[in-house]
Amino acid sequence: MLGRFRSALYSAIGPIEEEGVGEPRPHSGTSRPTKQKYGYQRPAFLKLATEDEIQVTADHAVRPIIVPRDVTALPWAAGYAETINAGKSKSNEDQAMARQGTVGVVQGATLVQIPYTMFAIFDGHAGAGCAVTASNDLWQAVVARLESVGPQLLTARQAGQPDTDPDLSMWPQAKTISEESLVIGALEAAFWETDQQIGEEKKVFHMPGGCTVLVALFILGKLYVANAGDSRAVLTRSSRAYPMSYDFTPVSERQRLQTLGRLAPHLLGADYGWLEYVRRPTRRDVGSRMLYRDAHMTGWAYKIIQESDLKFPMVFGEGKRSRLLATIGVTRGFGDHDLRAQDHTGPVLIKPFLTPQPEVRVLDVETEAVTAEDVLVLATDGLWDVVSNEEVAAVVQRGLQAWDNESKAGKYRYISLAQDLVMAARGKMKERNWRRSSGGPATIDDISVFVIPVLPYKQEVARGGEGEEEGREAMEVEEAAAGTAAEDCDSEAPPAEEEKTEDKSEETTE
């Protein structure tokens, strides 16, 4: 019902402007920066070189499914597919990045190259500016941070045991640092550094809104998934789904948010309170008992309602409809430095409650029993809003089986799987509403999906990184996104399965 109402609303009033709800209005006599650091773009590996090609992807009525025209543009022939929303913003606010390269480490008189492969998805809100910037800048911060701990990484790797920082060796209780902790620390530091940089650059460049961030980093025989937001990573293995990340929403982060509100109530202004009630108290509840919970509580207790309890709760609503300070539905990511909630005494900054801190989960690919059925799916919430982890695993398993006997065209299997997943969430237009094949409502949000085979990385590790050359084109393409012109490379489009015949005219691959 909500999806139908929103679709009707968008049809009636047209697309909502990208500035979004909560963006600050310029003060009298002042204006926002108009200069852009990066122009609007689609992922570089899609090789959409002209404005006309990009405009084709922005058809809200058709919602074409876009896939790479060149299957070699992504490492390991990984799959990618995307589609635009049903009209809630002018352009697709999702962004994606894939890169394969090396981390240079000086060891004695030798330069050692540590190969890495990185995929990332950025879900923008209130505009695509922040997501575009993050897709161009985050990988550089990650590589720089890895290079800064490169000698310690090599020492820990070669010794097969945790490394000790030489600067701390004089202390009798110096801590030993594992290789895993060094990589996790590099990712965490890079996330914070990139968010801080975006905050500073917003003073100079027009960069509205913010974005969630999901990164998959393959390095030193392990897979690191770093998540700050509500995009999601799932490892599928033989029809089973193994979450590699969990969504961060106002509800899932209730205790962190309430704790901050309790410790710094001035951040909430005069109209918001940190306590959570079974329902919002009204004036007629003053003096009566009501169930509540504080930041330190996981259960519920009673308290007598007072005048001071009649504030709007800082976390309001449930599930995907929950909002922080009645304004935003995400609690981690980049940007939103100027985002404000309304308060009768003045605007309340929301950024103190938002954090770029990622949760990092690790899979030891080198020692794990990995097969051709092990596939990592990264996707923005446009997929997960209507498709469960288990359904994603089932779609991947069916797709892998369908391609088993088609070795000649097998290089397209992961692109085809990404198409299948986007189609499962987007559905088809029926009676002026987007509906899934099951008959239920489809998502009206942007959808971006990576489908990444894990076995090729394990094979590269076993060969000692010989697969590095295969990803050099992906690296060059990402460099093109930063300002170097990319050459257009045409190749045949992935064949569509019979069930996609009806939608084939809607899919743009060239």
Structure, briefly:
The protein has about 500 residues and is of the alpha+beta class.
In helices, the fraction of residues equals 25-40%
Low-confidence residue ranges: 1-29, 466-510
Q: Work out the strand percent.
A: 15-25%
* Whole-number count of domains: 2
CATH architecture of the largest domain: 4-Layer Sandwich
Can you walk through the features of this model?
The protein is of the alpha+beta class and 510 residues long. The protein folds into 2 domains: 2-6 and 36-248 and 356-487, PPM-type phosphatase domain (Phosphatase 2c, domain 1); 254-329, no CATH class. Helix content is 26%, strand content 23%. It contains 11 helices and 24 strands. It has helices at 2-13, 51-56, 129-148, 150-159, 179-201, 254-263, 381-384, 389-402, 413-426, 455-463, 472-481, and strands at 79-83, 94-107, 110-125, 163-164, 176-177, 210-219, 222-228, 232-237, 240-243, 272-273, 276-277, 289-293, 301-304, 312-313, 315-316, 323-324, 334-335, 340-341, 348-349, 359-364, 375-379, 428-430, 433-435, 447-453. Strands 2, 3, 6, 7, 17 and 20 form a 6-stranded antiparallel sheet that branches. It is globular, with a radius of gyration of 24 Å. The two termini are 36 Å apart. Residues 1-29 and 466-510 have low confidence and may be disordered.
